[in-house]
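Run log, item B.
One chain of 576 residues. Sequence copied directly from the ordering sheet:
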Amino acid sequence: MRVLILGGYGTFGARLARLLARDGRLTLLIAGRSRIKAQLLCDSLDGAAERLPLVFDRDRDPAPLLDQARPQLVVDAAGPFQAYGEDPYRLARACIEAGANYLDLADAAEFVAGIGALDARAREKGLFALSGLSTFPALSHAVIEFLSRDLDAITAIRAGVAPSPRAGVGPNVVRAIASYAGKPLPVIAGGQTTSRLAIIDSTRRTIGVPGELPLNNTLFTLAETPDLKLAPGWAKAEGLRELWTGAGPRPELLHQMLRGLAWLVRLRLLPSLGGLSEVLHWGSRTFVWGEDRGGMFVEVEGEGADGPVSRAWDLVAEGDDGPFIPSIGAAAVIRRMAEGQKPAPGARSAAGAVSLADYEAVFETLHIKTGVWTEAPAGAPLYQRVLGPAWDRLAAPIRAMHQLSGEKVVSGEATVIRGKGPLAWLAGLVMGFPKAGEGVPVTVRFTDLRGGELWRRTFAGQSFQSFQEDGAGRSQGLVVELFGPIGIHMAVLEEGGRLVLAIRRVTLFGVPLPSWLRPGGVAYEHAEDGRFNFFVEMRAPLAGLIVGYRGWLVEVDDSAKPNVTDQPLETGAQPV
């Protein structure tokens, strides 16, 4: 089966080729304006598929190349689809006339929605033309279909994608964003279709898979996706009251600068940002910092058999694996074609062409994790709310310790060590940490207070306390532990039944501390001999070890003493 990939050595075309290269049933025709680049990509692919480089300029008549290449399928992975001119479907039409099936990775709303103009001719020729086999709308629709499978109606859809700052966004993606930045886009708010300003209208969100390390809280601004036009026509979504899609490019400083430029378009000081696309692309490649991780979220609200339902699906991709996502749907369709399962004839949006299971099968081979968030049960304790479904994977003694309604008192023993430097001593004094010792009696009093938890720890008669609560704003999805003016903002993770706390931010009087001043350490809870055990080390860049303590806790009426973990406190471990 001959598959012609236009833009075959670009950001997404190359990744599609890599996903398909191991399939010996395929011949991959890698096409672009540069034969050298196409040949280099062919040489770099590892697998049984035959690879051939071709020169293709989409600004010229595509018919001669199609006659020469004789593909069964043409994939347009080039773009930007927002700039395909007065005859945007020239390539798709030429494919149909040449007897080749067609699909693309378009994310331009008008382009994807208008592909139906070719439907009659495609059906007549017994061919298919699918537009939008990309993150939006192919993956987003698959997720929405999964989240709403048992709903009677969908009332709200919100979605966004946040690529890694090191993902190397291609020039065509930047040109697409520049073409609509600062201009009105249709959204649904309060049940009414209205317009908001692209790359200006904003929200914030923390993307995280239950029990896994989340992304840092991200700014999302309104972005054009086919979903904004197509979603009201999807099954169960006829009565949508809210519809919004966004993008969260990082670093946030560059994103805020892009917002500022979008305002110049809104104020008509610039006609568009199209003329700045090369500069914007250079900036996105040059000024790169932050964690090399990307993500996506899809939120759905609707009506179920028992009333309103709210669900969210989150994805986190590590390193360079995120940019594979827009190509996975096309790879799934191509593999099925090679097996003789061809999509039905006709020209249409790719929404519904692939399922979430098609994506998940590939996610498992990459460093990509996904998870679903549902509303926590009424009265759920703090840690259950933050962990979501991962709560059930914790060891039973840990869940029991964090089940809190009113007040709970537990006791046990601990080993305590203290840092020896002057800064460590001063920090321990200010925080009220206990003195060093072996077999130190411990009592902890948990109090349910204003939706949070007051923890009063007493080590051999010496007490210190903190207040823990759900994070908000930039700490959404985290647990915030307050020691007076100091706030420790922590991600709550589940690792093999353990509960692990990872510090993400530290604030002093609400002001974030820079990384070179930020305390870190190791903190986790685990079960041993059926009992609750804890392990805590707190360190600071200038002070080293401040305090460490490990031990066990049981209900006050339980006198049985479990074994204390024999892991040494002075581990020298790096902050989680």
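Observations after the first pass:
- The radius of gyration is 27 Å.
- Residues 382-555 form a domain with the Lipocalin fold (CATH 2.40.128.20).
Flagged for discussion on Thursday.
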